[in-house]
């Protein structure tokens, strides 16, 4: 080889090495990646099982909001087709049972209300089918594709005056406010049937009761639906399954008689039975409960409770095409897996499990299913599940993940001071030195009846990328560990949960994971509430970030949307004042708090109103404890504006960095 040839070869090799290094070099995830993350939702299987539609939501940075478009992927995963692409969101795609159309909901072309649009699968632009003047809450095709059952909310005429000034809110009902909905006056959601060819809308139900979750019988003659028709539905959760002929003027038949909730009906393909979810307990308030899979004859009678002995929450009941079995998703100790019940003998089989979380189950054929699956390193993607074996269909997040290095995620079990075993999840920063103690953030989930799972967790990944070990604690009150574990905190908030958080803290310090002098705590909703309870109990945490929380629980009666829960669980404040004051200890004993705390809230939150954060901020400000109050304009309980989502994480990191990091670390 000549000197010139050698030089060219070396330069080429150097260039290739540089390109390879550029391609493979990873970087930590950062809050700006919130703008890059897309989300998948609502998979729907075509009647022939060959295609699956789904929604993809992405951030429009110029409008600072998310926009969703519709996509379709083939069963073999080899083809992916974008169905819509416009400035307005499209959602809730549904195949017509004859396979000719894909319908969806959109307020495109300046419509003030969401309308149903039809996309002919043979080609062409989508055409608007409906011209609704009120809110469309749900819709479902009839089996012959000639009709569509709709759930429509009664019109609100309060702002119809020429001045466009809204009339005063006038409430006379027990439950008069709700997050997002705001103040609730009169008005209900009712069933209608829309004739696709004639564009005629017939009213099926009227009155003061809500009707939801309609499903057609396979022969197309009847609808099953959910309604609470007790004397005062605001005061209980006693929903039942009803059946009626799908025609104007038809009578309704009450199918279930349980005094708890019955919901999520789904008709068996052979038309003989209806599967649904039933509460474990009867009675009034049922927050600390878990749904059981039930099956009842279409004619009524005594239901079969298939999952009663499982002692785990089940959801998303989905009939197999042969009507012999029902697929369910089961929440079980940091995972959600796919299981199946045989209707005839109640035999239960785990079909697909692991350290991951399944959602959005859909039946395809035989032993084939479609579901969303997420794991700690991958946001939710669609999978075909064949004989229990998942096969990935979509790759929406490949571009998002390609440049990122993510935290490692592992589970661990800690013991609380009363001996309770608590399941937790630990996030370690990517490339964290082995054996080095890290500043640690306990980021506590809300609910309280939910659980942290082995799924992709953007907030905790972002905190870990900031150089922190991050701990998720499935404290008592969480689900996935059985009904007794969930009910353990009934009328006893801020006691056992705090024990569980402190037990997890003891564990990570003892194991040399956390630096005991550099630990922080935070969370949103019940996670914010538990942050307040914890810092009022123990001073070991050197910084806190309490979001959408509360402490002076007595002040929430009538100002949030949980009056029914309070009266059932705690008793009326004027009858059981001592209980209310006991549960308000973070505010009433605020002088015990030494932790610098940032409080965050949403301006229009009716779930946990902004007052809960304002009161604690004012208390700490008066006491001279470092504090800050952040309020997000126009937001409800959940933050939806992308720039606010980024701002929240930025502020978490800035606050914790200020108090948890030092030159000695």
From TrEMBL:
Question: From which residue to which does the signal peptide run?
Answer: 1-20
UniProt keyword Hydrolase present = yes
- Keywords assigned by UniProt? Acetylation, Hydrolase, Protease, Serine protease, Signal
Q: Which domain of life is it from?
A: Bacteria
A single GO molecular function, which one? serine-type endopeptidase activity
Q: Which GO terms describe its biological process?
A: proteolysis
Does the record carry Signal as a key word? yes
**Locate the Peptidase S9 prolyl oligopeptidase catalytic domain: which residues?**
455-662
Q: What does this protein do?
A: This enzyme catalyzes the hydrolysis of the N-terminal peptide bond of an N-acetylated peptide to generate an N-acetylated amino acid and a peptide with a free N-terminus. It preferentially cleaves off Ac-Ala, Ac-Met and Ac-Ser. Also, involved in the degradation of oxidized and glycated proteins.
Q: What is the protein name stated in its UniProt record?
A: Acyl-peptide hydrolase
């Amino acid at each position: 080889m000549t000197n010139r040839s050698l030089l060219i070869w070396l330069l080429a090799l150097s260039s290739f090495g540089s390109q390879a290094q550029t391609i493979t070099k990873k970087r930590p995830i950062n809050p700006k990646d919130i703008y890059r993350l897309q989300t998948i939702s609502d998979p729907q299987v075509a009647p022939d099982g060959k295609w699956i539609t789904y929604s993809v939501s992405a951030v429009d940075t110029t409008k600072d909001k998310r926009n969703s478009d519709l996509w379709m992927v083939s069963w073999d995963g080899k083809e992916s087709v974008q169905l819509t692409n416009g400035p307005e969101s499209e959602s809730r795609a549904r195949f017509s049972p004859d396979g000719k159309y894909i319908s969806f909901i959109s307020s495109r072309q300046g419509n003030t209300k969401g309308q149903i649009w039809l996309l002919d699968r043979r080609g062409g632009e989508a055409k608007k089918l409906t011209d609704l003047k009120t809110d469309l809450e749900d819709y479902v095709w009839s089996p012959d594709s000639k009709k569509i059952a709709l759930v429509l909310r009664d019109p609100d005429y309060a702002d119809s005056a020429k001045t466009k000034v809204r009339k005063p809110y006038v409430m006379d009902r027990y439950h008069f406010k709700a997050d997002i909905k705001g103040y609730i006056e009169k008005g209900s959601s009712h069933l209608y049937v829309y004739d696709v060819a004639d564009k005629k809308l017939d009213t099926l139900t009227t009155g003061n009761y809500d009707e939801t979750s309609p499903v057609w019988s396979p022969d197309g003659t009847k609808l099953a639906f959910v309604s609470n028709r007790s004397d005062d539905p605001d005061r209980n959760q006693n929903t039942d399954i009803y059946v009626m002929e799908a025609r104007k003027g038809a009578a309704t038949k009450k199918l279930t008689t349980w005094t708890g909730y019955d919901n999520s009906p789904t008709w068996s393909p052979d038309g003989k039975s209806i599967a649904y979810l039933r509460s474990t307990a009867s009675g009034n308030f049922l927050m600390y409960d878990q749904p059981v899979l039930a099956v009842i004859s279409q004619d009524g009678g005594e239901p079969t409770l298939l999952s009663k002995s499982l002692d785990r929450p089940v959801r998303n009941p989905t009939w197999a095409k042969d009507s012999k079995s029902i697929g369910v998703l089961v929440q079980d100790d940091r995972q959600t897996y796919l299981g199946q019940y045989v209707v005839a003998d109640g035999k239960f089989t785990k079909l697909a499990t692991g350290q991951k979380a399944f959602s959005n189950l859909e039946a395809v054929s035989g032993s084939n299913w479609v579901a969303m699956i997420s794991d700690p390193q991958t946001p939710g993607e669609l999978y075909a599940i064949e004989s229990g074996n998942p096969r990935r269909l979509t790759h929406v997040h490949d571009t998002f993940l390609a440049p990122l290095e993510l935290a490692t995620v592992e589970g661990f079990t800690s013991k609380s001071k009363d001996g309770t075993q608590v399941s937790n999840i630990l996030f370690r920063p990517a490339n964290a030195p082995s054996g080095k103690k890290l500043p640690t953030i306990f980021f506590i989930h809300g609910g309280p009846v939910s659980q942290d799972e082995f799924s992709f967790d953007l907030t905790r990944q972002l905190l870990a990328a900031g150089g922190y070990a991050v701990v998720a604690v499935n404290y008592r009150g969480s689900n996935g560990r059985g009904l007794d574990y969930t009910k353990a905190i009934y009328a006893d908030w801020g006691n056992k949960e705090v024990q569980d958080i402190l037990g997890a803290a003891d564990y990570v310090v003892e194991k040399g994971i956390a630096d005991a002098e550099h630990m922080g705590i935070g969370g949103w909703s019940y996670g914010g509430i538990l942050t307040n309870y914890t810092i009022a109990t123990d001073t070991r945490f050197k910084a806190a970030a309490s979001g959408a929380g509360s402490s002076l629980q007595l002040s929430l009666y009538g100002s949030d949307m949980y009056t029914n829960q309070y009266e059932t669980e705690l008793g009326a404040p004027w009858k059981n004042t001592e209980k209310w004051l006991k549960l308000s200890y973070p505010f009433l004993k605020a002088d015990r708090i030494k932790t610098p705390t940032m409080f965050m809230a949403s301006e229009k939150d009716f779930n946990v109103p902004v007052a809960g954060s304002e009161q604690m901020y004012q208390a700490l400000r008066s006491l001279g404890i470092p504090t800050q109050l952040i309020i997000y304009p126009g937001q409800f309980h959940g933050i939806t504006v992308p720039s606010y989502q980024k701002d929240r994480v930025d502020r978490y990191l800035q606050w914790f960095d200020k108090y948890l990091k030092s030159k000695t670390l």
